[in-house]
Amino acid sequence: MAEMKRDEGGSAGASAERTARVRNPRGQGERLREDILRAAGGLLEQVGSEDALSLRAVAREVGIATPSIYRHFSDKTELVWAVLAEHYERLAASMADAGASAPADDPLERLRHQLRAYCRFAVANPAKYRLMCETWQTPVDEERLHGHPAGLLLRGLSQALTRCEEAGWRVRGTRSEAPYLLWCALHGRVALWQVMPRRKDTARLDRFVDELLGLLLEH
pTM (2 decimals)? Predict the structure, then answer.
């Protein structure tokens, strides 16, 4: 709450922030929350880290007093994670839809579709993807870390691998690390695909997914 107290110090600035925005009618608190998320997301894209994000700047962007942010988010970490959560949820939904388009009795093919959907999402949404994977975040304790929005992606990958195991596939290496291995491999390949000066052919990403599954799973 230290930043909130510092921001309250300048009465003239706080007064200007309070009068800049017309108060939402009763029942529109969710709209204000969305405005805060949108402003925070835009600023995060510019500054690239949680530490560099200023709640005063977020409040100024929305047109509210800085303390008003704390009515919706307990601290800056919760705000940043909420911004990231929107994008992780869209990615997870895209992967789930892609998996559902594959035969229900072929878990390996469903996983293949999911991994390809991950690549497509990263390619189609470069700004959102950079925000998800390149935003520097303040370390938290292990208990709180379990609530990070990236858990949605990792749990989905783990569940997909479990379905493959139930169908007779064996995961090479340490099972608990397999979802991280998939994520790291996909992220690294997408990053190289995006920056290397060659023609952008997403078929190369599809072939990488095939190679990755061939290395990770055996029947």
Answer: 0.86
